[in-house]
Structure formats: structure tokens, C-alpha cells
Amino acid sequence: MKPKLLTTIRNYSWRMFLGDAFAGITVALVALPLSIAIAIASGAEPKAGLVTAIIAGFLISLLGGSRVQIGGPTGAFIVVVYGIIDQHGFDGLLLATLMAGVILGIGGVLRAGRFITLVPEPVIEGFTVGIALIIAVSQLKDLLGLPATKVSADLVQALPALWAARDAVNPIALAVGLFAVGGIALLRRIAPWFPGSLLVIAAASAAIALFALPVDTIYSRFGLLPAGLPAPSLPPVSIARISALLPSAFVIAFLAAVESLLSAIVADRMIGGRHRSNAELLAQGAANIASPLFGGLPATGAIARTATNVRAGGETPIAGIIHALAILLITLGAGWLCGYLAMPALAGLLIVTSWVMSEPHRWGERFRLRTGDRTLLFLTMILTVVTDLTIAIAVGTVAGLALRLIRKDVEPEEWAPSDRSQL
Questions:
Q1: Is residue 178's pLDDT more than 50?
Q2: Any bridge partners for residue 301, and if so which?
Q3: Looking at the keywords, is Iron-sulfur present (predicted)?
Q4: pLDDT at position 422, please?
Q5: Does a structural domain hold residue 70?
Q6: Domain of residue 227, residue span
Q7: Residue 161 within any structural domain of the chain
Q8: Is 423 within 8 Å of 270 (Cβ atoms)?
């Protein structure tokens, strides 16, 4: 369970530091707008996303079991976080995240990393596609410039609300959002290592500020972002509150474990390495304990940022540490500039993210799965969309394990996740 940092630091050199520094700064420029967008989509303040990228990103790299893993807020949590905030308030989310961190830490101590592979891959794919669909629909509000419309994380409620507000569409906001979608998608295809999302969003936001266009920005919606980090504090704790939030804490812990280990596997393939799953769980636990103390969101390994790190030349956890410190320095010195970021452009970023997250190019492969696996995938996806993630994960996992026993395939298959590194 030794952190990879202790292993890689033995033969560290200035050449490696320069590569890590360039990669860390590059990833920070990718993570900055994405962390803000994820926080807003989750129903939280923009600063919560930045705090998570700084605190959790630092700890995941410092203590983690992967050489190149980058941690922070991810799209997988948006639906869960939105639901917890809606039902229990932001303080409830902080406590649930802290509890999830404890659960992850216990899992790491008990060496439970290998048991995550018991979760059937069709279940993971099913809830990933379902979450991607919900994220995309939830961003249509800001893409269309509908500031007065509150869109629920429940897709069944969201679509009628959006349709009812169709006459209030802001054509300028829509044009900005479509520009962001096209620009971000193009730059990700041409230069996946380049922080093109920030460039596109900055260009769109600069045009809005320069021409005083009637489009919502972070400042007009949330006010000025505070510089630096807030003082740490413990959220309100009681037996009743812990009991009410325990199911949510287990869902957060499950998602953090699955996403971080999937990301680590993808990173291993890119660098020809091998991660330490139990050290990774311990790092995720520490990150999810510390993040809520500063007002942050749940965190996990981020596949896209990890891949960007590798492509930009990152070789050791120092790159992830530099990424977190770079975001902190940006918030201290130029955080006020984030207030100019346009809401439709951030919505466009998340729509592109959800599109890549759903891996549309793999539908042919999915339809060719065995009947049981195909049914499991669609069952989990539909339950994610029409009920909630807790039910989808529980039903999908139980059904998948039952299917494995029926097939007498008791030993867990080695995970073979596809390369979602463009996300």
C-alpha cells in the first residue's frame, strides 16, 4: 500500500521535473473550467469545484497508487451530488462525502481493491451511459439561456420543464453554447493534450464581455469567486443525520472506487505500468475526508485529466501535485477572471464531456454482447435514468453476480475498460 510517489522519487531528475511541471500546468488549465462546470451542474457553488481540484487533487497524487493519476471532481458524481444537495442540503453533501472517505479508507486498509472487479462491466457501462444522458439534458437549460428554469436531475421531470420554457430560448446564448461544443470537440480531436476547452470558453466569454451581450456568466449568477481556500470546518454531525446519509455515502464511495481504479487501469495501459489498488483506495479515502472539510465535492480519479497528463509528458505523481498547486495559484492571482466565464460555454463543455463519456462509437459492440450482458447494460441504464443511481447500482450488481453464478463464471473477469481517455 506504499504510495507511488515514494517509489518514483528515488530516481527523480530535473528532466523528469520539467516534464511533470509542463504536464501539471497543462492539466490545471483543463481542470479549471471543468471543475467549475461540474460544481455548477451538481447544484453547488463554483468555488466547490475548485476546492475539490486543489485539495483532493493534491492528496490523490501525494498518497495514490498510480504514477500518473489525476484526481478531482468528475461528471460521474453530478447526478448523485445534485440529489443529495436537493434532499439534504450542501451540509448534508459534505457529511456524506466525509463518510464516504472513511468507507474508502477502511476499504484500502482491508485490501478491498481487488473486490471492485466483482462489479460486472455491463453495470458500469450502463450507469455511465445513463449518467451521461442525464448530464447532457441538465445542461440544455444553460445552453439555451433559460436562467429562470430549474432543471431537475430527474430526466422524467427535466424534459417537460425544458419544453415548457421553449419560448424563452436566448438565441445568443445558444450560439455561444454551440460554438463551445464545436470548438471543444474539434480541438480535442486535433490536439487531445492541449487545454483547448479553456481556450474556447475564454474566447466565447471574452466576446460576451467585450460586446456586453445578454448572456449569463458565473459572476452574474454567483457573484465574485473567493480567492484561495476557505478555513477548514466540520459539517454538522448527528446520529440521525449519519443514518439518513449512509446510503448516499456508500454510493459516493462506490463511484469513487470504481472510477479511480478504471482510470488507473487506463493509465497503466498508456504508460506500461501497474497501479497499487489498495494505496489508491487509501488516497481516495483521504481526499474525500479532506475535501468536504474545506467545502469541496466528492472526488475520484479523472480519466480525461489523467490521459492529458500522460500525453503532456507527466511521468510521476509530482505532475498531479503541480496541477493542484497551479489551480491554487490561479485562484489566488486571477480567480476574478473566472467570473467572466459564460454559462452557455460551460454547458457546452459538459455536453461534449457527456457525449464522450457515453462512448457512442461502441454501440455496435454493445449490441453484439451476449443476451444477458446486453440486458444487464440496458437495465442499469434505464434504472439510472428513471429511478436513481443507488437503485441502478444495487439491482445491476446483484443481477450481474447472479448471471455470473448461473454461467458458473464465479471468478471475476479481469477488467478491460475501453479507453475513455478523451473524456
A1: yes
A2: 71
A3: no
A4: 46
A5: yes
A6: 14-360
A7: yes
A8: no
